[in-house]
Amino acid sequence: MLSASLSAQSYHGKAGKAIKGATVNVGEMAKDTITDYSHFSGIKTPNKNWKAPDFKTNPDRIIHQEAPSPQRANKPVSREMSPAPTRDFLSLEDNQRSIPPDVMGAAGPNHLMTTLNTEVRIQDKEGNVLMTTALGNFWRPLPGTTGTFDPKILYDPYNDRWIMTTPSGSNVNESKLYIGVSTSSDPMGDWNFYWVDTDASNIAWFDYPSIGFNKKWITVSGNMFGGDYYRTVFVFDKMAAYNGDEDINFTRFATYEGFTLVPSVTYDNETEDQYLIATGDGDQNGYGYIKKFKLSGELNNPVFEYQGDIGIPEPWSGWGGDYGNFLPQLGSSQLINSVDARMETVIYRNNKLWAVHHVFLPAGDPQRCAVQWWELDTDGVILEHGRIEDQSNTFSFAFPSIAVNANEDVMIGHNVFSSTQYAGAGYSFKAYYDEPNSMRTYYQYKDGEAPYYKTYGGDRNRWGDYSATCVDPENDIDFWALQEFAMIPQSGDTWGTWWAMVKPSFSPVADFTSDETLIPTGESINFTDLTIGVPSEWQWEFEGGVPAVSSDQNPQNIVYPNEGTFTVTLTASNVLGTDVVTKQQFITVSSSILPEISFSADLEKVCVNQPVSFTDLSLYSPIQWEWQFDPSTVTFINGTDPYNQNPEVEFNEANDYAVTLTATNMNGSSTLTEFDLISAGGYQPWFAEDFEYNGFDRNNWEIENPDHSTTWELFSIGGNSPGHTAAGVNFRDYMAIGQRDRLISPPFNLEGMTNAYLEFQHAYAQNTAVPATDSLIVYLSADCGDTWTRLKAMGEDGSGNFATHEPTIDPFFPQMASDWCGDGWGSECNVINLDAWLGMPNIKIAFETYSFYGNAILIDNVSISQTVGVDQQPAISDVHIFPNPSNGVIHVLVPEKSGIHQVELLNRMGQKLMSKPVNGPGEILMNESSQCAPGIYLIKTSGIGKLSTHKVIIVR
What we know:
With 956 residues, the protein is mainly β.
């Protein structure tokens, strides 16, 4: 064995800025049930007749070389089968628009993401599809999205973020690299999108990205083609991207050393350095080599080094000839393309590196393809290496990806090819306690279904080019694999992709839970095993239970006939060990406990005959339910009735409904009534919305976003009270012109009102670079959104008729009171009379924007009331309210001969919070208002034949 300490070759980097294109809510794409390809380029076809280069190893650059040995010549072979998947299911199918699909995916805590050349799909971990969209559509806010290809995705478990990269433009003039990072662990939420020009000199274009990360950097490498031929490495400031900075720093390195440099996915949030591995010369003087690189140094001044080559005395060929068409299949003489022996995945964990690629054997005259894996220390010393291969040349294994969990179990996903079967999907597993240099027999989790041949006029029957294997971040133990397989043809030969989840075994760590721990006498309990380590045997003991023991994994219906407190014990075992957990006094059985009733409704302010779903949240084992409504004018729907636990109900008249639930358990019944819980017909004004608390969700505003791009969102603003939040659409983020987006209010009931006004504030400044204007249009629906009447249309004509700030070339967001309507330059605020709809329920208001690439349009303090404004409404004999805004204590000064006999404080929905009698002139102190949350409230003063309301604002 030869190991050497060499002086590394460093490269000069060039600093740059990645441009932020947008922050996009991916969940909005889920509303599109049809994948739209209309604005993307046609079918993707592979490059013709391309062959991987050879990179000779300089003997002076060898940092580690393993000596030949009889032990290595007779590598250990595990006869044990890799574990079967816990679950597996379809991901994405061929839409006949790309070869190869470039299979890639990742697992988050609750989701799976698949990113192919054709589409992006988000699923839950049971396989349910949550969102599917075209790859170009996913990146649509960025420039040049009609030419996207080669997506890669990872999940960062230390910061709970998804990281995705995709090149666009396979030519020197249009080549770009996209970077997207989620703002949370939910891929359906917001993402920050950035892009870079991969070669500002337009000499070469970027292909085949490889992606990794560590605590400081997101690193993306690629191969450059065109007028020059080299490798490039982009090193991005990771936390700047996570924070959503407008422009993020990167350093770009270039090297002619190696091909397809793969950066490590770094499972360590402390290490400062990052490593890259590439394939070297596979057949040089009886050795095969890989190349090792390193990133170190400061965040925005990284050092990139080529450290040297690592060799084993087991050479391989770098490709299979015939333009790469090499892999056999059943039912066809056409071979499947195997590309070349480039590196695919690199993992850093516990100061070690794992890497994987496929190779062609024997060297010089390939007859089969094998998966080759490496385990190195950070100096490049080989700790373990091995191959997944069939030396009889019957089976070939290709397109691998590798993952390593917290226990250092290893799983390699790969395809399986043979003339005896169709192209299938499999994986191979190595437990941390298995023999060094070994790998268990592969498990084929998805069989191929048909022959596959598709070239789109080229010479290569493309497959791959890669695959995904990853650790589940939920526990850092389980694995997920995503592989391609040959499907039954659909309008031509067809590929598909399939997920598999694998739970490795280790010595059990026993745990359990139950659906109840406090129950009435005679009730039953269901127990759930939470043991990790894949136990194969369970032994339960239930003190006081019937039956008293069980060997089921999840015992059901354990009855406790007697009052008392009882212990539960679980013993869990597998071939690796046994663990026992005992929970003392875990179950309490009572002969007197009654249901503790609680329930919820998914909506409380609804249109007449709009469905409402009720959910029983009662504790202590209810077994019977009875729902009552007052008034009783309701209809139970979808097969439910008053005796269902969770009924669905329509309310048939415009009214406030009380809801009563009676729940019964083995000991008896309890009843709870929620008065005025449901307002059918909608909110009864006064209504005020300031978007400060829970944004759109508090009052169930709806958003219509037909193009699933930029739409209504919440912005931090200044100059308005209360708070610092407004709703709006930022047209600076909108790449499309003429798009309409609606923000739709909850329903309102105008019954019993003598007049009604819609008021709102807005802010807007025209973009001086755009000759036209963006527009805001207000609609009203009297039938809960089925039809709409236009109330007002607003667009700037240059006179300040709509804009509230002078035209500006800079992005506009209000920061002071004069930036808003009615205060300073430009437009007055909006008051729209709604008297034509008095007496009607089911009223909705919609604010529609029309985009013309201008500035943001924002609205705030939307209200519907019988009176107009604070200072414009009629007063009773000059009632004086101060201070306004108030920090919580409100003074009401009542003059002589006012006729007022009562002062009330109301919330935005007109609900009375407090009331005080008036016995004559003087000051009324509403000191209980100090307990109110910040927001808009109403002071109502009343007397015989007299009524007045006054808006007050409480701030902190």
